[in-house]
Amino acid sequence: MILLLGLALVIFAILMISNPTFGMFNIIIWTSMAFFFAGVYRISLALRLRTLKKRMDHES
């Protein structure tokens, strides 16, 4: 499994080096996906913390 992932990474790197447009769009897509999922995670965490605070205020 690790060997296959290593080969995939090498092929991916060759594609990015040989075609800069592919590399540019790839970086943009991965960065935007990371920001999107980080935002979704923060919203989820904020909602959980809000319900926890309400529950703690109700108990005290």
UniProtKB/TrEMBL annotation:
<dbReference type="InterPro" id="IPR005325">
    <property type="entry name" value="DUF308_memb"/>
</dbReference>
<protein>
    <submittedName>
        <fullName>Uncharacterized protein</fullName>
    </submittedName>
</protein>
<keyword id="KW-1133">Transmembrane helix</keyword>
<keyword id="KW-0812">Transmembrane</keyword>
<keyword id="KW-0472">Membrane</keyword>
<dbReference type="Pfam" id="PF03729">
    <property type="entry name" value="DUF308"/>
</dbReference>
<feature type="transmembrane region" description="Helical">
    <location>
        <begin position="28"/>
        <end position="47"/>
    </location>
</feature>
